[in-house]
Amino acid sequence: MGKQQTARSVALDALLACENQGAWSDGYLKKAIREAGLDSRDAGLCTRLCCGVLQNEMLLDALLDRFAKPPVARMEPAVCGCLRLGLYQILFLDRVPDSAAVNESVSLARGRCRNPRAAGLVNAILRNLLRERESLAMPEDLPTRYSHPAWLVEEFSKALGGEGVEELLAADNGEVPTAAQVNTLRITPQALLERLESEGVEAQPHPWLEGCLLLSGTGNLEALPSFQEGLFYIQDPAARLAVLASGVRAGDRVLDACAAPGGKSFAAAIQMAGEGSITSCDIHPKKVELIRSGAARLGISTLEAMVQDGKQCKVEWLNSFDAVLTDVPCSGLGIIRKKPDIRYKDPELLLGLPRIQSEILNNCAQYVRPQGTLLYATCTVLERENSAVVADFLDKQKDFTLEPFTLPGPIGTVESGMLTLWPHIHGTDGFFFAKLRRRDDGDL
Question: I need a labelling partner for 373 at 20 to 30 A (CA). Which of 27, 55, 88, 283 fits?
Fold first, then answer.
């Protein structure tokens, strides 16, 4: 049996898996924390360390390179990981003493690095940084300071019209409370609030979205009795707002064409008061099973989950749904604050997404009955994946028009029928959705 894993060693494993194997940090961490048997405190520290390093990787490397020879990019990956973990703790974690940050990183290097000189190198670089910390000037350029590649900062600047770019970058690097949507088919928001507090979870109502609670100090959420009893599910307010905008109501027949992991389907079922029907689809059988298990936990009996490609026409569905939700595959650049490694994607790999998004939207539009609604949604903020796809769709599909909708809180009525949500403005994920209504005057 190997040496017992610690919060820092699991965080290092995750960082190396992201760098060397292309793993996604959230999925890797969830599995690694469970296998290492970390308690809730160490699991929280491990997650914070891994996410914090990824959020600040370019900044950490720029500062380390002032003291390191060779530069960190040319070092053994494990040495680089130990240095990044140590410096992140020194700069950002007030509760970790500097001595502990250095000593733990040195210990990691001694046990995990091939280079026999690694421990001494890590010790020397981090201690030199500590001595110079008071005079350590932060980089002035936004990409390095906030660890967002230059191409991404440029894209965000275009999307925001040059206003609030730094605020968005800072929000991407902040800690995000967990948003729980109340399963009002089983419990009221106030009763769930009291129940969570009795289970040791800090919870407070969302400031303007009814039926949403913001959680902290959760530990392993899935172990909570209230979670196991299906009293809530985890979903960002942005996704819930998209379902609200769709206007689905009791008795509707709804298709969620790209449903996994199921949050919008669950929100629709609750919004429909458990009346009507929801068909939830994904192309991956394992993800369809996740939707089914989530619906069973929540006690949602009106949902049928099935494998179906959103780009492939299913003839028996033509003109038959009151509402069709299409949350299409996208670049994910609106959820960087939760999945920090998304920022390091190769931008070339994103260029083909609008074609796929258009294929799904055009195909699924055929399933909307006359006078029914079609919702197009993404978790990105790039115009080419959002309003440009909608504009192209409307050029081809003359039977659809954009329709205004009204949402709670600071949003109000959206006359254009299209909305982009921003982390630094709305406190949500970056998210886009458009509500379209099919006319009652002929086939597509």
Answer: 283
Domain boundaries, the chain: 7-137, 140-172, 178-234, 237-438
Active site residue 212: no
Q: What is the helix (H) or strand (E) element at residue 9, kind and residue range?
A: helix 7-21
Q: Please report, for residues 114, 384, 398, the alpha-carbon distance to residue 392 in angstroms, rounded to integers and kept in the order given.
A: 54, 10, 11
Name the residue type at position 44. G
Which of 113, 258, 281, 379 is flagged as catalytic?
379
User: pTM for the full model?
Assistant: 0.94
- State the architecture of 178-234 in CATH terms: 2-Layer Sandwich (3.30)
Tokens read off for 331: 């670049």
CB 343 within 8 A of CB 149: yes
How far is C-alpha 157 from the geometric centre of its chain's CA atoms? Answer: 21
Mapped onto helix, strand or coil, the DSSP state of residue 240 is helix
Distance CA 9, CA 68 (A): 22
Q: Report the candidate in 426, 444, 442 with the shortest Cα–Cα distance to residue 179.
A: 426
Q: Which helix (H) or strand (E) holds 371?
A: strand 368-378
Using alpha carbons, list the distances in angstroms from residue 132 to 34, 105, 135, 224: 38, 19, 6, 45
Scanning 308-385, the segments in alpha helix (DSSP H) are 353-365
**Residue-by-residue pLDDT tens, the chain, 444 positions:** 356 899 999 999 999 999 988 899 989 998 999 999 998 889 989 999 999 999 999 999 999 999 998 899 899 999 999 999 999 999 999 999 999 999 999 999 999 898 889 999 999 999 999 999 888 899 999 999 999 999 999 999 999 999 999 999 999 999 898 999 999 999 999 999 999 999 999 999 999 999 999 998 777 788 899 999 999 999 999 999 999 999 999 999 999 999 999 999 999 999 999 999 999 999 999 999 999 999 999 999 999 999 999 999 999 999 999 999 999 999 999 999 999 999 999 999 999 999 999 999 999 999 999 999 999 999 999 999 999 999 999 999 999 999 999 999 999 999 999 999 999 999 999 999 999 999 986 555
Query: What is the CATH number that goes with domain 237-438?
Result: 3.40.50.150
Structure tokens at 13: 């494993």
Cα 210 to chain centroid, rounded: 21
Structure-token match 């609604």, residue found: 373
